[in-house]
Write a structure and sequence with these properties.
Layout lengths: L1 H26 L9 H9 L4 H4 L3 E6 L2 E6 L6 E5 L19 E5 L1 H4 L2 H13 L4 H13 L10 E5 L16 E5 L20 E3 L7 E5 L9
Parallel strand pairs: 1-3
Antiparallel strand pairs: 1-2, 3-4, 4-5, 5-6, 6-8, 7-8
Helix pairs in contact: 5-6
């Protein structure tokens, strides 16, 4: 009986392990995050005004991570980030396939912030959890794999097709200016109620930025 019980536990344990493995494997299905390349290209370009995005380098998400689709000439880089792209992510929306956030980075942001997006994406594609992704990114800053911007770094997010979260939807067209260790008080703001149209995110951290609403959306080209 002991042998049968041991054998049964082993089989049950193996079965449970197989089930857990299958659940883990199914927890991230890259296919539901992939877009038709031409459409994703047009989405990426819609992140910024034509004068910025027309000559920008375009990156598309693939099952292996972001890949350069077309090389630009003005130093800007445009892509469509997904739900896990930024550090300030709500666990409930970490893998929300509905989130599409087209963004165009200037050269300094492309060499810093965009590299963080690429690393986060690789980790997610490798099946890492939100906590594991955040820990690995923090370690990458400590060991010098990633760095914070040293010069003016900005990202345009002006696409009419952006969808950021269930709560805010398309929100507003805006520009993000990355300013390490920025605080709300640096903007002359006392609290959330006084923030007005310009506000800081991740304030007081090396990843701090401030958001500046823009007057109108950029439509997705045909």
């Amino acid at each position: 009986m002991k042998r049968l019980a041991t054998c049964g536990c082993t089989v049950a344990g193996l079965t449970l392990a197989m089930l857990l493995a299958s659940v883990t494997a199914a927890a991230f299905e890259v296919e539901k995050y992939l877009l038709e390349p031409d459409y994703e290209t047009r989405l990426a370009r819609s992140a910024a005004p034509h004068g910025v995005s027309h000559d920008a380098t375009i990156w598309l998400l693939t099952a292996q991570g972001y890949r350069e689709a077309s090389s630009g000439s003005n130093g800007f880089h445009c892509l469509v980030t997904r739900s896990w792209g930024e550090i300030a992510v709500n666990p409930a929306t970490f893998l929300d396939a509905r989130v599409l956030a087209p963004i165009c980075y200037n050269p300094e942001a492309a060499s810093t912030v965009m590299q963080r997006v690429f690393l986060r994406t690789k980790l997610v594609l490798d099946g890492k959890s939100m906590q594991e992704v955040d820990s690995a990114v923090a370690a990458a800053y400590l060991n010098g794999t990633l760095r914070s911007p040293r010069f003016t770094a900005l990202g345009y997010m002006m696409s009419s097709a952006q969808w950021l979260t269930e709560k805010v939807g398309h929100w507003h067209p805006h520009m993000m200016i990355y300013a390490p260790n920025l605080s709300q008080s640096d903007l002359g703001k006392v609290g959330l109620a006084d923030m007005g149209p310009v506000f800081a995110e991740m304030a007081g951290t090396p990843n701090a930025l401030f958001v500046v609403p823009m007057p109108k959306f950029v439509e997705v080209g045909r």
